[in-house]
Amino acid sequence: MSALALHDLCVSFGDGDEQIAALDHVSLTVDGGELVAVVGASGSGKSSLLAVAGALRSPDSGTVMIGDVDITNATPSDRATVRRTKVGFVFQSSNLFEALTAIDQLIYMGRLAGMSSRDARAEAARLLDVVGLAQKANRRPGKLSGGERQRVGTARALISGPAVLLVDEPTSALDHSRALDVVTLLRDLTHDRGIATVMVTHDLSVVELADRVVTMRDGRLGEIADFTRVGD
Amino acid sequence: MFLARRELRFAWGRFALMGSVIALVAVLTVMLSGLATGLVDDGISGLRALPVTHLAFQAHTDSTFSRSTIDVATVEQLNDTAGVSAEPLGLSLFNARSSTDVTVDLALFGLQPGGFVATDVLHGSLPDAASNGVIITQGLADSGVHVGDQLSFDRSNTVLTVTGIVPKSTYGHVDVAYTALAVWQVATYNALDATTATTLVSSAAIVADGSVDIGALATAADLDIVSKTTAFNGSPGYSAETSTMTLIRGFLYVIAAMILGAFFTVWTIQRRAEIGLQKALGASTRSVLFDALGQVLVVLVAATAVGVAVGLALGALISGGTVPFSLQSGPVAAASVTLIVSGVVGMLVGVRRITSVDPIIALGGAR
Q1: Position A230 pLDDT exceeds 80
Q2: What is the pLDDT of residue B295?
Q3: Residue B294: pLDDT above 80?
Q4: φ and ψ at B226, to 5 degrees?
Q5: Which of B2, B363, B365 sits opposite A56 (nearest CB)?
Q6: How far apart are the C-alpha atoms of A179 and B74, rounded to whole Å?
Q7: Residue ranges of the domains in chain A?
Q8: Who contacts B271 (Cβ-Cβ below 8 Å, separation ≥6)?
Q9: What secondary structure letter does DSSP report for B322?
């Protein structure tokens, strides 16, 4: 069974008098331990794909399965539970809480996922060590570099032990060297922890680190084997 | 409250600014409470101290001492009613000049010697009518009137000798003095001969038990009989003062609610992205709201406590001066709680936007 299975998804939204298809009969399965990169231009539907896969919204049609749980028509409350326990998000520009230190970012997520304060703190410290930020655990986002913030965001996404990791443009604010570092970290964590990771990006320089690359254009998915042809 | 507590520490400047505004409102609330209580005391403390349940006045005089004149015989008839104890009570405002040339305004109560009012208020120290004595309250003593001084009353040829001083008591914002009913009658109805004057009085002090039908009693005697509290309204300026203070305090609570509402509306709008992130990470709308409410309550309660403390300190400085100001725990506590409730109402308006934040905004490009 795939960790994440999206089948025949359709999502559309109104744009004036028009209906725009953000996802047009999209199907995608991702296995545990697999990093899938989704590349495409702005407005191609990448973020809508993440929103549906991450239970942030329901599709107009199609099915969304995380493991053996069908979340297609889950209530908002059930979708929030899914996000707390089964899905980890790494957001564009890290999207950290301004008021929280690095370790508190993780503890907050751990507490949301139902961990005790002590367990959350211990796991947060361990994960910050894994991502190489143990020495900066007490720094707030304003005192961290872009790459460090993204690593904190990654550690935060992992603290709840998610089956699925959804990564939204993780390198958009990073130079090439730091971008490679972050995506390498994501790949290693995906493989080590058996997580199904979907990484949306338009940074072609990092997709070579993915196990699989798919393209999106006008809400439709195309799979390619050779990442060097992504830009074709 | 994990995130809320850390936000309070991180953005302490913003919360301190908000808190200082609330604290200032709380100071103002305490000061207004003290002023309102002080004004009430100044207006009716002499009346409030009377051991009566009701007061009877001449019909159609708006239960006002200055306009009411009733026969002492009518009061005696009231006293004959089962469950009712009644005795004549006189009250008039005078200007008087002491033998040491101190001019004072005073509210002169005429009490029946040996009656239940004199016994309760003066513990038997009421001078008899023959001695032409008057007992003054502390406020008059503070104005320079002393025991042994003679007080000459305007509008009459009455001259009374001060025989004692009792604690401060006021009516209609002037200090109270007590004399025997017959002395009061002669001083008040000075245009009449003494025999006629002693048949009249301005009101009746009544103690009625719960079984008495006050309406029927009033109709039978052709009097207005009102509760002691209702009679407060007959004090000069009392209704206007209390309604004005109530209006000001009401506006203050509305303003406090609006300030908090505006602050938390802006605060919520500024935090929209973070609220979206909280929800995207799986926080329920309820828990996000709970965090926001907790945050507000901390600011509100802390700021109110600081403001009340400052208000009490300022009030202590003012109390005892010429400004009618009196701080009592009940009204101050009620004002503080009302301020907090007003703040919570305002805050609810402000943070209701939390419910409408879509977690999808955490994903930059998604719609």
Answers
A1: no
A2: 86
A3: yes
A4: -125, 160
A5: B363
A6: 101
A7: 31-57+75-229
A8: none
A9: S
Exposed / middle / buried, residue B191 (Cβ in 10 Å: 0-12, 13-18, 19+): exposed
Shortest CA distance from A153: residue in chain B: B281
Closest residue in A to B365 (Cα) is A47
Topology given in CATH for the domain delimited by A31-57+75-229: Rossmann fold (3.40.50)
User: What residues does A166 pair with on adjacent strands?
Assistant: A89, A198
ipTM score: 0.90
Amino acid B101: pLDDT: 92
C-beta of residue B309 within 8 angstroms of C-beta of residue A111: no
Beta strands in B195-266 (DSSP E): 200-201, 203-208, 223-227
Place of tokens 């207004």: B32
Lookup: tokens for B346: 């305002």
Q: Which residue of B6, B281, B360 is in closest CB contact with A57?
A: B360
Strands A35-39 and A212-217, by their bridges, are parallel
Q: Which of A158, A157, A164 is nearest to A54 (CA)?
A: A164
Reading the block at residue B326, the tokens are 């009196």
| Number of inter-chain CB pairs under 8 A, A vs B | 87
Q: Tell me, what DSSP letter sits at residue B126?
A: P
Identify the pLDDT of residue A231.
47
